[in-house]
Amino acid sequence: MKPDLNASLGAALNAVPTPPAPPALVLGAAGWLGSALLAQVLGAGHRRVGAWMRRPMGSTLRGLVPVLDADLEPAQEQPSAWAGACAYLVLERAGLTGAARNAVFAQPDASELLPLAQRLRALGVTRLLVVLPHAPGSLPEGLRHGFADRDEQGLSELGFTQLVLVRSSRDTQALPSGTPWLERFAAAWWSQLRWMLPDDERPLRSVALARVVVQAERLLREAGPGVRVLTQAQASRAAQSGVQGAQTLRVWAGLDAQPV
């Protein structure tokens, strides 16, 4: 049976084009995770992609809009170019990459989390994803033991329609003050030993984690409002290829029911 060319042509002409994704902002693109995340966001079909920079780049990447510190202040006389945008705020230890990249891209400090989130909300950003690397050595000093309760509470009260906290590894839990040096040594040794696990049990590397975070953002466009936490275990399962990985994120986003 020959295909109906007229029907195929009509279906193609009547197909509803996929609208571009809302604008996206990346803050913290200087480190390994931040640079991997920026690359993933640039390929995700957003209408506009901005990156927080210390100074404009000599040669800007295609599709990338430099966002200087002054650009994060809302202009009263005109609507914000980032109204309705989603923002990725990556908190990573400074100095992980070369000096040239660090000289261009601004890297937020853990103490700037709430002030930056407030500025983004004032710009009209509606969705915020706060991302920590899984590797313990890449975490900022102020977040070695995860988000503080007051930070999570403060972020949740800013009025973002969706807030996502991508948690880090829990390998570096705080030890009580006065712990003997031998116990501290044993804890540090055990932390390194746990890092030497099979690939499917390790904390995700930067590129894999960045890919999962961008996939999560895409799914959340279909999901309802709320505060969500993406744990290391969930991200690791979501990074698996095939149906299981995709299903993990859909269940996490509330789009599918938990399999029985």
From TrEMBL:
Record key words, sorted: Membrane, Transmembrane, Transmembrane helix
Transmembrane segments: 24-45
UniProt name for this protein: Uncharacterized protein
